[in-house]
Amino acid sequence: MFGGIAFVLAYIISSFFVRNTTEDTDRMLFCFYVVIALVCTAQAFYGIFQYAGFLPASKGFRVTGSFDNPAGFAAGLCTGFPFLLVFLAYKKVWIKILVVAAGLILIVAVALSASRAGILSLFTVGMLALFYKFRIKTNRKILVFVALLISLSGLYFLKKDSADGRILIWCCTWEMMQDKPLLGHGTEGFKANYMDYQAGYFEKYPDSKFLMLADNVKHPFNEYWLLLTNYGMAGFGLFCLFVWFLWKSYRRNQNNSLFIRSSGWCLLSVAVFALFSYPSRYPFTWVMVIMSTIVVIREAGYKVKAPPACAFSFRIMLIPLLITFAAATYIDMSAEIRWSKTARKSMLGQTRQMLSEYESLYPYMKRKPLFLYNYAAELNYIGRYHESSAILAECAATFNDYDVQLLFADNYHQTGKYPEAEQHYQRASYMCPNRFMPLYHLAKLYAETKRPKEAMTVAKRIMEKEIKIPSGSIYNIKKEMEELINNNMDSINISASESRVSKAGF
Which one of 197, 305, 330, 354 has the minimum C-beta count within 10 Å? Predict the structure, then answer.
């Protein structure tokens, strides 16, 4: 639903560059706000019905709307909430009743999603709206600010383990930023390097209180830290300059109406949400931010003198650009659909038959790390380990995590490159020290290479290891390790007996 509405918003955005009268602009704004209000209300109902059990949600969650997780759902509602408030300016009572009802539905939906970033974002925008509506005095604003700080601590205890996990992520991210403070690690720098820093952290602090919270991480749960990590102080400085320009534009607006205020509140909502989540992952958020930015800048009243020929040339240039963008999007979507079908058939046991499809998809999707990982995993499955490692190396350049390290280790293990396999098993274990699989394979590798002492040491670590999520496979691993320990103990006892017999002269 949210993806389809982007086309409507794209039309409205383009209309700003085509229409010039204030009347036409207001009409476009009105259409924009109506569409957003309707879509967000429908999305909120969708989430509430999921919570009630009438509709299914995405894997492992209770409320997701049409998104893949609660964060996207809450981000969409939070960015749309300020535009509902516009209609409170209308004098008709029935409109105000509908707006208040829709606003309450959005608030309930965000609360049910349990998104702390969403709750904080809505609270912030709601307080600003109250300040605007009722002209609250400064001392009361201070009380509200104190309440905001208290609510922050309350949100911490709402999901304490999750909050502690983010503290771990921020600690490791801070180390990344310190290593390359000026220019950062590059566009995909966080995904390519973060898990190595997490591995380094647990290698240095093996008894850390965060050990049971470690997991694969693709985002630092803070957009500003992501910007600093990938692009350093240089990129963050440019971002701050743009934010300053937006603030000046917002303050410059002579029209102090809810139309302008709502755009500013939308940007603030995203800014607050970005402190603890990843709203930039969702196209709808980008559309809302771009639209709000255009409104704020346009209404600032800047005088830009350009000859008619330039405006006409700009519009003409947009045509081939849009055609190129549409063609690239079509090619990308077609490749994604082909990959989805190919991966599904491969999962059904048709890996060898699907290999030619993977090879033909590679030129179009070689910059997509998830495709590269999937391709490498399929090559591993059919025993083409060297090719799998080559593809996996391309993946690791932009995306490296626990699963990538395990696949590397298995490729080396199967081809007899035991030192390399050992290194990758250990790396995977440090990345997510609460996982059993790396240590399990490491123990088996030591047993295969006639290193019983190392095998015993790792097996004992597995037996003593705390279980985060109980499962049958973990209990089977523990049982197998118990047998390995007993067998090694028997071998040691036999060797000791033979030694005593030999010394006795028998």
Answer: 305
Residue 169 pLDDT: 95
Residue 297 lies in a domain: no
Domain count, the chain: 3
Q: In terms of domains, do 342 and 408 share one?
A: yes
My answer on whether 384 and 459 are in the same domain is no
In a shared domain, residues 148 and 80: yes
Residue numbers of the chain with a pLDDT score lower than 70 = 1-26, 136, 141, 152, 254-257, 303-312, 314-315, 489-506
If asked whether residues 391 and 337 sit together in one domain, one would say yes
Between CA 458 and CA 337 the distance in angstroms is: 43
How far apart are alpha carbons 413 and 394 in whole angstroms? Answer: 20
Q: Choose the final residue of a domain: 141, 158, 175.
A: 158
pLDDT of residue 315: 66
Residues 87 and 33 in one domain: yes
Residue type, 435: R
Alpha helices (H) in 180-253, listed in sequence order: 189-204, 223-252
In a domain, 143, yes or no: yes
Are 387 and 344 members of one domain?
yes
| 244 in any annotated domain | no
- Cβ(71)–Cβ(277) below 8 Å: yes
What are the pLDDT digits (tens) for 318-374? 778 778 877 887 888 888 899 999 999 998 889 899 999 999 999 999 999 999 999
Burial class (CB in 10 A: 0-12, 13-18, 19+), 67: buried
Predicted confidence at residue 486, as pLDDT, reads 87
Residue 460 and residue 485 in contact, taking contact as beta carbons nearer than 8 Å: yes
Identify whether 104 is part of a domain.
yes
DSSP 398-411: T---HHHHHHHHHH
Residue 413: burial class (beta carbons within 10 Å; 0-12, 13-18, 19+): buried
CATH number reported for the structural domain that contains residue 356 in this entry: 1.25.40
Which domain does 473 fall in, by range? 436-506
Distance of CA 84 to the CA centre of its chain: 27
The residue type at 220: P
Looking at 413, 447, 462, the residue that finishes a domain is 413
CB 220 within 8 A of CB 173: yes
290 contact partners, CB below 8 Å, separation of at least 6: 13
- Angle CA(157)–CA(163)–CA(169) in degrees, nearest 5? 165
Query: Do you know the residue count of the chain?
Result: 506
Return the amino acid letter for 180: K
Say whether both 391 and 475 belong to one domain: no
Gap between the Cα atoms of 217 and 379, Å rounded: 25
Among the listed residues 222, 102, 110, 228, the one whose alpha carbon sits nearest the alpha carbon of residue 166: 222
DSSP string across 429-497 = HHHSTT-SHHHHHHHHHHHHTT-HHHHHHHHHHHHHPPPSS--HHHHHHHHHHHHHHHHHHHHHHHHHH
Considering the domain architecture, whether residues 68 and 142 belong to the same structural domain is answered as: yes
> Do residues 148 and 127 lie in contact, with contact meaning Cβ atoms separated by under 8 Å?
yes
